[in-house]
Amino acid sequence: MREQGWARGDYALAFVHSPSAKLSLSVGYAFTHDEAQVHVFEGNDSVSPAHQFNAITVVEPGRTLELGDQVIRVTKGEEQAGLAGLDALVETLELGPPEDSPASVHEGGLYEFHPWGRLEMWHQGDRGMRYPRLTELMPYYQRLGMKTLWVLPVSWPPPWVYTLPEFDRVAPENGSPEELKAMVAAAHAHEMRQLIDLVVYGTRPDSSEVAKLPPEVWCRDEAGNPVLVWGNSVQAADCSNPLWQQRITEVISHWRDEYGFDGTRLDCIGWGQTVNWANPDRASDAVAYGGLQLNKVIRDGFREGNPDGVTLPEGGKPLVFTNSDLLFDYPLYLAMRDLTGQPDLAKWVADTQEWLQLEGIGYPNRGVNGLVRFLQNHDVVEPSDFFGVGLSQALQALITFIPGVPMVYQEQEIGRASCRERV
Fold first, then answer.
1. Lowest-pLDDT range, 76-85, 157-166, 278-287, 338-347?
2. pTM higher than 0.70, yes or no?
3. In this structure, are residues 327 and 367 in contact, taking their beta carbons and an 8 Å threshold?
């Protein structure tokens, strides 16, 4: 058995309990250079947990390669004592969030929006919807109890908003720079922070950034060619390269100082999207190792102008908390999709309670309050279509009242379903 990817939770933890021996084994790892996933191998009368480290390198004879530290804890007693031991082990792994993460980030809700409206409306084309319509809604968002707002990328219009032609571009189809600044100022006037959605792992291949930046910042394949990702729409950067990190520092300063943004949601965690064979000794550094460094550069950049600045990477695993203040709880979202398929209401409620208990153990204690709990965002289906209206309302109430930051996607609060859109 192995973990199924960060959307379902790359906790990199294994827990084994023997009722007969009254012993529990907890296994984790401390990140030093390479990310790992946990595997569990089951034999006829044995269970063997192991970690697979994602290190890509050219290994010469006699070379020693340090990957990371595996941490093992043995606990005597019943299963609950073993789980307490696992909880204690997690606290030793230094997964974050940072100690100086602002307490205010856990207050109120998070609201995602775009001037064109919800994603399913984008196919209708440009209907003249710009930033001023969002500015007018700031009193309403405040009354909803929102404390943090997240605007989708500003550099390119729908339908593919994650295209990045230039780091400092404001697409006129979304509004003017002055209108964007006014929107941020209105959020502040109503005591809400404003996050900008940023792409920091590369640019469009035809961007002027490609010519301006030195060639060593770009990932190369084994033949020395630049690597294009996301359907050849992005030229991938090496996030561990200091010159790339310096350019992103300048980008953060721009959005912080010129527009007043308080932080960012980082697309694709803000990590590198591919390995870099121009660095054969550590080709995989461009991904997680460099990504965590870049997360820190970005967080420090926003906090330089605002001690309450925050980062929210698009990731669902504890390691991402290392240099971030908030984290999307994708595993809970997918667990709700799975657990609610159980027709026995009492059983799925009990299963959900148990799942939340185990998830809480998988994160550092101070991290649970920073989990962004959501039922919908621009990447997932309309909840009333998937769960039904009544169940989606119940689940929204659940994520609002458990520890964490409840999220609302644009107009979700007034109820929208595809059938209503068609009418």
1. 338-347
2. yes
3. yes
